[in-house]
């Protein structure tokens, strides 16, 4: 490995550390609502951590972890002939629109739920088994029908991400929401309208995209959240 590449890797590593240091230990502890959820993998717990950091200080997330994601993403796609089409640049309309929407601070946090995670996991496994890429299950049920059985009469939504197994990649990909005019995934992460506060998360293999991640959201009464350790 030549000296230039080593220097670039060092600078990227240093940049990541500087960004991480801009967040306080208190903020990380506050965001880590899934720390005791033993039914989640570490990456699944970290999805909730990063989503909560966005809600604690969206603009800080934009200027720190999102920049890490963009730098790493652009390095990964550099090897492709259509790199100029694939790379994320600061004039990207989704990048620009996000800056306007992400200026949120101290929003209510997301908390994990074991039952909801079971539903997320079942759908992710279904997507893998049947090579699907939709919110609709192989048996024809919509996500709202799947969730309403256990969470009746509650506001709910669902994000699905394909191609990533890393928590930061998954969250940033959904946050940018490139190519999704409705910005539905982004709006779920920044939700204030429906008071979504409970999440289920599952990362599974996928035959066409290598990985898929299902994140289900439900609005629960505060009393239900108070029982979460």
Automatic annotation (TrEMBL):
InterPro entries to which the protein is assigned, alphabetical: CAP_dom, CAP_sf
Keywords per UniProt: Signal
Annotated protein name in UniProt: CAP domain-containing protein
Domain annotation SCP: ranges: 103-209
Protein source organism: Pedobacter lithocola
KW Signal (keyword) present: yes
Extent of the signal sequence: 1-20
Pfam families in the cross-refs: CAP (PF00188)
């Amino acid at each position: 490995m030549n000296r230039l590449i080593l220097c670039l890797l060092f600078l990227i590593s240093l940049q990541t550390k500087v960004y991480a240091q801009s967040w306080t230990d208190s903020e990380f502890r506050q965001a880590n609502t899934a720390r005791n959820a033993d039914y989640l993998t570490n990456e699944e717990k970290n999805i909730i951590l990063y989503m909560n950091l966005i809600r604690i200080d969206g603009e800080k997330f934009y200027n720190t972890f999102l920049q890490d994601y963009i730098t790493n993403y652009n390095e990964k796609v550099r090897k492709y002939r259509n790199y100029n089409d694939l790379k994320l640049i600061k004039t990207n309309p989704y990048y620009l629109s996000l800056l306007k929407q992400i200026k949120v601070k101290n929003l209510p946090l997301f908390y994990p739920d074991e039952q909801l995670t079971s539903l997320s996991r079942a759908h992710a496994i279904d997507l893998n088994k049947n090579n699907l890429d939709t919110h609709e299950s192989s048996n024809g049920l919509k996500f709202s029908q799947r969730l309403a059985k256990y969470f009746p009469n509650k506001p709910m939504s669902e994000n699905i991400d394909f191609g990533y197994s890393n928590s930061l990649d998954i969250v940033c990909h959904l946050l940018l929401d490139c190519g999704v005019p409705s910005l539905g995934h982004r709006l779920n992460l920044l939700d204030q309208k429906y008071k979504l506060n409970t999440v289920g998360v599952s990362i599974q293999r996928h035959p066409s995209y290598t990985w898929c991640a299902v994140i289900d959201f439900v609005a629960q009464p505060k009393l239900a959240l108070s029982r979460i350790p």
